[in-house]
């Protein structure tokens, strides 16, 4: 029984193809891209519909393989370029940006040594990303387990069989699953002693079922539905870096954590920038009869906007520094990059809430985008690390440094 096609080999001109892809990705007009994505964002939000056309557009521009290494056929972009693209996509449609962020984190990790994947499988997946626009993401959260970042064994089980593994389980919050080609499923083996790790599951494999449960306040178009896996057969080689649970307690990959926190920060900061821009337009054009002039002429409105600029400047300076250090090969510690994500997210939420406070009923009206920006930006709190975990890690690091 052939479960998957044999790994594709890159043609001799793969470096030329990579150069072409890198050129397309470098030359894309990010402002125009934002505008194109923004044209349907409100509709996808209202319908909670997955924006398939957005990813076809990103593929045409070579952006789905942006962080795939050039040696693997991708654009080989660094953190600063990835940050710029995520910000531009988020300015257009934050849900698309969230799925793309996960794509960049997964494909970048696969392009680096020590990824724990069999080489043939790694090449096959990256080939599908570069040539077919395949999307992949990790499925980790479960009903009983919650987020694995807080510990615990997954209930998802992979059973050994003659053909490889049969995977069964229930995953929640599977970001982008409606558009994914590959599911990197966190689970445990049925061995003694038990081992935990990831199992690569093709999304179209028999036994994979999507249950459309995603009806969230924000990021409604991200398609983060439940996934049920029922005796899904995968080859033996699709078990990725299985370890005994205690072996996963080692320090996290600082570079991967740094990338994740910068890209998530850029995503939610971009929503705040959208809110700021809409507020400026409102202040310039709203002229109450009692005032006889636009609200922008009021010192109170100018001061409030200045406070928003203060928050956005802090975000920009932190993200600039973090992206620069990441590209220079100096990733921040997980504790410091976790604080970055927390600070940028807090500031972004504060920006949107200040804009709502200034605009009153106009800001809350569903005919205007500000209430949507508010719902989307609140989702920044959900991503790992949550604020309490980030602050605990930073506090412990400070205590250890002082001892």
UniProtKB/TrEMBL annotation:
Source organism superkingdom: Bacteria
Pfam families: Acyl-CoA_dh_1, Acyl-CoA_dh_M, Acyl-CoA_dh_N
Domain Acyl-CoA oxidase/dehydrogenase middle residue range list: 142-232
Signal peptide from the UniProt entry: none
Cofactor: FAD
Residue ranges annotated for the Acyl-CoA dehydrogenase/oxidase N-terminal domain, each copy included: 37-112
Sequence ranges assigned to domain Acyl-CoA dehydrogenase/oxidase C-terminal in this UniProt record: 287-382
InterPro entries, sorted: Acyl-CoA_Oxase/DH_mid-dom, Acyl-CoA_Oxase/DH_mid-dom_sf, AcylCo_DH-like_C, AcylCo_DH/oxidase_C, AcylCoA_DH/ox_N, AcylCoA_DH/ox_N_sf, AcylCoA_DH/oxidase_NM_dom_sf, Mito_Isobutyryl-CoADH
Keywords associated with the record: FAD, Flavoprotein
Entry's family note: Belongs to the acyl-CoA dehydrogenase family.
Descriptive protein name: Acyl-CoA dehydrogenase family protein
């Amino acid at each position: 029984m052939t479960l998957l096609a044999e790994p594709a080999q890159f043609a001799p001109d793969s470096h030329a193809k990579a150069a072409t892809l890198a050129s397309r990705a470098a030359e894309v007009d990010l402002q125009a891209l934002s505008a194109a994505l923004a044209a349907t964002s409100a509709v996808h939000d209202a319908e909670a519909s997955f924006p398939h056309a957005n990813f076809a557009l990103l593929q045409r521009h070579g952006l789905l393989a942006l962080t795939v290494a050039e040696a693997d056929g991708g654009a080989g972009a660094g953190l600063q370029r990835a940050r710029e693209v995520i910000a531009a996509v988020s300015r257009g449609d934050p849900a698309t940006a969230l799925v793309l962020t996960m794509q960049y984190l997964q494909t970048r990790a696969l392009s680096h040594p020590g990824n724990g994947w069999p080489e043939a499988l790694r090449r096959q997946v990256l080939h599908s990303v570069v040539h077919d626009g395949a999307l992949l993401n990790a499925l980790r959260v479960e009903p009983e387990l919650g987020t694995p970042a807080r510990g615990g064994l997954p209930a998802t089980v992979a059973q050994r069989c003659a053909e490889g593994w049969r995977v069964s389980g229930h995953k929640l919050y599977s970001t982008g699953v409606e558009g994914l080609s590959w599911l990197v499923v966190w689970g445990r083996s049925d061995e003694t002693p038990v081992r935990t790790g990831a199992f690569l599951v093709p999304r179209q494999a028999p036994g994979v079922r999507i249950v459309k449960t995603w009806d969230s306040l924000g990021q409604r178009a991200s398609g983060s539905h439940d996934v049920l896996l029922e005796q899904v057969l995968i080859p033996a080689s699709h078990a990725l870096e299985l370890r005994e649970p205690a072996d996963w307690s080692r320090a996290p990959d600082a570079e991967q954590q740094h990338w994740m926190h910068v890209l998530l920060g850029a995503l939610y900061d971009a929503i705040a920038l959208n809110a700021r821009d809409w507020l400026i337009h409102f202040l310039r054009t709203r002229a109450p009869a009692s005032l006889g002039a636009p609200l922008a002429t009021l010192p109170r409105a100018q001061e409030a906007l200045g406070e928003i600029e203060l928050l956005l400047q802090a975000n920009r300076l932190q993200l600039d520094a973090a992206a620069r250090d990441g590209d220079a090969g100096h990733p921040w510690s997980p504790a410091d990059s976790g604080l970055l994500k927390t600070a940028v997210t807090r500031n972004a939420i504060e920006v949107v809430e200040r804009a709502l406070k200034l605009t009153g009923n106009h800001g809350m009206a569903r005919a205007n985008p500000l209430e949507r920006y508010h719902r989307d930006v609140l989702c920044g709190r959900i991503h790992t690390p949550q604020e309490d975990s980030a602050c605990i890690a930073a506090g412990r690091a400070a205590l250890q440094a002082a001892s």
